[in-house]
Design a protein that fits this description.
Distance between the termini: 53 Å
Structural class: mainly alpha
Mean pLDDT: 89
Radius of gyration: 19 Å
Shape: elongated
Order of helices and strands: HHHHHH
Number of helices: 6
Largest sheet: none
Number of domains: 2
């Protein structure tokens, strides 16, 4: 009973694997491909956490995180340095970060006059799809 269905699952999975990296990432090429696919999925999803591709994005994220934990050393950085980097990477201005607050609050955070609070950290981590730990 299960065998014919299982054979179909295997065929479908193999076909899917030619398009989507759904296994342990072993090389830089695998990693780059997974990051590219995740970016494309996240672009498609936008802010819709109920998007049909959300679970696939979660799965790919697990493989990426595992690869990074084993192969990518990220030097410690101040939260403001990380935030400035992410802003540059995403071409954002202070006014583009309502997760933190008003433009004045963002300015104070970026100049070190104010620290990020837990609520702001959670929102930024979600927006940039990073671990909250990068802002601590």
């Amino acid at each position: 009973m299960l065998a014919p269905k299982f054979d179909q699952v295997i065929r479908d999975y193999r076909r899917l694997r030619t398009l989507v990296p759904l296994a342990t990432l072993r090389t830089k090429k695998d990693y780059a491909r997974a990051v590219e696919m995740l970016d494309a999925i996240l672009d498609e999803m936008g802010e819709d956490e109920r998007h049909p591709m959300a679970e696939l994005a979660d799965a790919i994220s697990v493989f990426i995180e595992k690869y990074e934990a084993e192969h990518v050393s990220i030097p410690p950085a101040k939260p403001t340095t990380v935030l400035k980097f992410l802003m540059r990477e995403h071409d954002l201005r202070q006014s583009d970060l309502p997760e933190i607050g008003s433009q004045g609050v963002v300015s104070e955070v970026l100049t070190g006059k104010r620290e990020l609070n837990t609520r702001q950290i959670k929102r930024l981590a979600k927006r940039f799809n990073v671990s909250p730990a990068v802002f601590v």
